[in-house]
Amino acid sequence: MEFWVGLTAVELLLMCTMCFFENNCKIFIYAELSIIWVVASFRYLIGADYSQYMSWYMGELENNMLLLENLESSFIILVKVLNDLGGSFQTIFIVYETISLSFFYKGLVFFVKEDKEKMLALVLYSFLYNGFWYSMNNIRGAAAIAILFWGSQFIFKRDFRKFFLSVALASCVHYSAMFFVLVYSVSFVKFKIKFKLEVFIILLSMCIGYFKLSLDILMFFMKNLSNYGDKYADLLVALNGEWRLSFDIFIVVCTVLLGTVIADRFDEKRNGIFLLSLTYCVLYISMNFQFYSVTITDIFGRISKYFFFFYLVFLTKLINEISNKIKPSFMILIMACVLYGLLFNYNVYKVGTDPIAKSMGAYLSQGNINYEFNFSLFK
Known about the structure:
mainly alpha, 2 domains
């Protein structure tokens, strides 16, 4: 844990220093990007799938026809090229982290204009579990998500051709990205007052589910107080499921509820990105519930990750908007980063003490939080 506590302290120090030298924000942005890239690229046995990718790279992939049939051709070709060039297994993590971080930052530059907001977004990305940590758990999925985040600027520009090409590129990295082409059609929902009220009721119902109150009470709220909720309640019954939100998603729910309250302050012509991100946040939350069917839960959980970066944009703009109203404004930025830094360390601690992960002896990286660098780039 000492490494992660130290990493958090360094990033908080960067954020605090940036608040006093806002004219030199770009220096701090590049420093934060460098820290994230180095830590993720040169880690050893960190990330749930690290051991699996290591074994694939070192020969298991060649002798397993099932893997060759189900994995993306881009991954298989990349492994072969890096092996032929004499690269060690560490190079596969360097390549995918470079793809993930590059496309994420390119997308961030479009959605977040101010340098101060960019720095805040990078620090939050590092601290939020579905950001930096997820990129080490699922390297192919994280790269595809980053590519789609970059490609989503074409939704805002209403350029379907370029958006479709970005989906095609992401699908070459991870097949699950193909579904994202459907998102284009639901991206222009307007958050009018009545609709925001409906969203509020749906999210309130999810909060009730988080506190594990009676499912009957949840159904009552969803069926009788919201037209949208009525549809979701029927789906919930049909799939024989129940709401069980994690603490992280509960925080997302509270954040989005706050965002819907102040959304009217954002002129859509001035900041339509905030409202579009709010739409995606609702989709992100709605997919983070668990059914009795593990398969269905896993499918929804994987899809929800594709909306995470929009929650990050939403959260960044929300914190920045609040900080602009309260003096001194930098205190809000620092307090927010400290709170999410504490949450990050709590999540890392949970990974390290997970008894299920510890029982999976075949995968040494599963549940491992003891950080080590690996700079061996050649066999």
